[in-house]
Amino acid sequence: MTTQQQLIFINGEWTQAEHGKTFEVLNPTNGQVIANVADACVSDTKKALQAASDAQPAWAALPHTERVNYLHKIAEIVKTMNDEFTEALVNEVGSWFGKALFECNAVLEEFRTAAAMTYQSTGEILPSANGKTSMLMRKPVGVVSVISPWNFPTLLSARGFAPAMALGNTVVLKPSEESPISGGILFAKACEQAGLPPGVFNLITCSRDNVADVGEELVANPIVKCISFTGSTAVGKQIGARAGGLLKKTCLELGGKDAIIVLEDADIGLAVNAATFGSFMHQGQICMSTERVIVHKNVAKEFTERFVKNVEKLNVGDPWEINKAIGPIVNKKQLEQIIDQVEDAKTQGADVLIGGTHEGPFYHPTVISNVTNDMKIIQNENFGPVAPIIIAKDTEEAIAIHNSSEYGLSSAIITADVARGLEVAAKLEVGMTHINDSTVDDEPHVPFSGVKNSGLGGHGGKASLNAFTETQWVTVTKEPHYPPFFEES
């Protein structure tokens, strides 16, 4: 990818940021500049929000079949841009080439599922004790701010704006400063090519220097009726608190400290594969990544030996190479956090069984044992290729260890007894549980949500329907009757 100038997209037009400022986007693999991107300010954001507000009534008034056609057209254009999205995903955020291909295919289903959602945006006929025709009608909230992350920027941006648009809302998207191209600019190009009415989709990009002010505008501006945010718990809490004080709807998908529980009757090969994929896919930089491996004491030795041996096979290097599944950490700050947490664990008695080192931006796949709950590596989200193994004496202790975390996004249970797996799942304080699979799993039509510090509300399926629409009670009365002294004589 050659260095290029990238603009913001407001009301169907490409434009520079108001002050003409730009910021550099760097390739995490080699540190080279990929692009100079418009560094928008609050004034630009207000213009984008106003454009979305002006366009929303006409967009909502379109027959749902017309909105469906636009969504399908955008999906087809995105499909033709597969090489551009893949290149951006690898070069912007160090996505392994295989992961980038998966993400490009998955995003097409996001648009198709969003289009199908228009047929599910139905109301209800309610009973009435007064003989009225009583209805619950569903309508769009209005303007939606979408703030997306860098780790799966293409998929998670689309998950925010596609269903919102399909349901009659207009959007302003702000992708991460790490991934403005794969998370936003290419989508704006697709919307433009699809002939989407001006103002329905608007794009704001900004640097880390401006993100606080731009983010505040995307939350607090009275035009905004709902905020879709995917990112860190710390920022999500700030957005939730701010939006709550303004009585605005939010859809917050935040961090995780996800665990896979390996019970004593588990298929160890299955457990090893699930833990390896869950811990190390995209360098562990996924909200659903397996960040705790809780293993029953009776199978801990066998599992650990086989797990370490499997991790040894993972190759580290240039993510463009299909056999290099472990690419770079996205930036220096994230790398330093991983190093700090592993070093903290070592000083407190944890054993590094493999890895624990890095070369430049590449942190080697790491497995550690003898960890305790008071270590940073267990208390905090790691977001790196590190798998801590925790041994549980029995199933109840495994459940207790799992629930001791302040997070509750995804989980996995490996067991030969599915009924038992369901019993354990019912006791976990978590938004999602996968029996005999990895913690990393998602489908566009399924409500994706967490509990505790992992989020509020959700994306996908009915969760998106509820997030991006409001209900209105409407009645029709044939013969109204009021107390006599309120009626004309």
From TrEMBL:
The organism of origin for this protein: Thalassotalea castellviae
Phylogenetic classification of the source organism: Bacteria, Pseudomonadati, Pseudomonadota, Gammaproteobacteria, Alteromonadales
Active site: 253
Protein's UniProt name: Aldehyde dehydrogenase family protein
TM spans (from-to): none
InterPro entries: Ald_DH/histidinol_DH (IPR016161), Ald_DH_C (IPR016163), Ald_DH_CS_GLU (IPR029510), Ald_DH_N (IPR016162), Aldehyde_DH_dom (IPR015590)
Domain of life of the native organism: Bacteria
Ranges for domain Aldehyde dehydrogenase: 14-474
Entry similarity comment: Belongs to the aldehyde dehydrogenase family.
Record's keyword terms, sorted: NAD, Oxidoreductase
One Pfam family linked to the record: Aldedh
UniProt xrefs under Gene3D superfamilies: Aldehyde Dehydrogenase, Chain A, domain 1, Aldehyde Dehydrogenase, Chain A, domain 2
